[in-house]
């Protein structure tokens, strides 16, 4: 049911209480009204970050992630050569993939489910950061050994 508040005409500030009026069905094109669901937008950046992390991990595992300045683990040891870059991303792909799945799952939980952001957001971000730190340590070791 759709309602709007109607104030008396020619009033800047109503002197009488507003009345609530039901909008007739013919104003809504006669068909069934769509159900509106309010979505929590806090999870959308996590979903996007999860997708990027998963794709980067899979490309790094296959050796298709070229050395660049935008995406990947950019440490002095990994940027030294293409062989070090590939070895680092092959060594850290699992931790990066898990961080991406945690980000994607946390973003979906925040966006679609009726869970509190005060629990999901801090736990998801801390898990993501820990997994990425583990992946960075693995990448640095692999790059130094290559």
Write a short abstract of this structure.
With 146 residues, the protein is mostly helical. The protein has 4 helices and 2 strands; from the N terminus they run ββαααα.
Number of helices: 4
Share of helix, binned: 40-55%
Q: Biggest sheet, open or closed, and with what strands and sense? A: 2 strands, antiparallel
**Spatial order of the strands forming the largest sheet:** 1-2
Q: Averaging pLDDT over every residue, what do you get?
A: 81
Instruction: List the helices and strands in order.
Output: EEHHHH
What low-confidence regions span 5 or more consecutive residues with pLDDT below 50? 1-8
Secondary structure class reads mainly alpha
How many beta-strand segments? 2
Number of domains: 1
What is the terminal-to-terminal distance? Answer: 67 Å
Q: What is the C-alpha radius of gyration, as a whole number of Å?
A: 26 Å
Backbone shape = elongated
- Content of β-strand: 5-15%
Index terms:
single chain, 146 residues, two-stranded antiparallel sheet, 2 strands, 54% helix, disordered N terminus
Give me the secondary-structure topology:
Blueprint: E1 3-6, E2 19-22, H1 43-62, H2 82-91, H3 93-112, H4 117-145
Antiparallel strand pairs: 1-2
Helix pairs in contact: 1-2, 1-3, 2-4, 3-4
């Amino acid at each position: 049911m759709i309602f709007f508040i109607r104030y008396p005409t020619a009033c800047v500030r109503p002197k009488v209480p507003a009345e609530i009026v039901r909008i007739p069905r013919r104003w809504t094109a006669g068909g069934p009204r769509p159900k509106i669901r309010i979505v929590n937008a806090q999870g959308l950046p996590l979903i996007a970050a999860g997708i990027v992390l998963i794709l980067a991990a899979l490309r790094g595992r296959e050796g298709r992630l070229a050395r660049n300045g935008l995406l990947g683990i950019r440490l002095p040891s990994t940027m030294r050569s293409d062989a070090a870059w590939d070895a680092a991303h092959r060594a850290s792909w699992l931790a990066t993939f898990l961080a991406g799945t945690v980000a994607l799952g946390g973003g979906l939980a925040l966006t679609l489910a009726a869970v509190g952001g005060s629990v999901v957001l801090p736990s998801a971000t801390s898990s993501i950061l820990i997994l990425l730190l583990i992946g960075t340590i693995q990448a640095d070791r692999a790059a130094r050994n290559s």
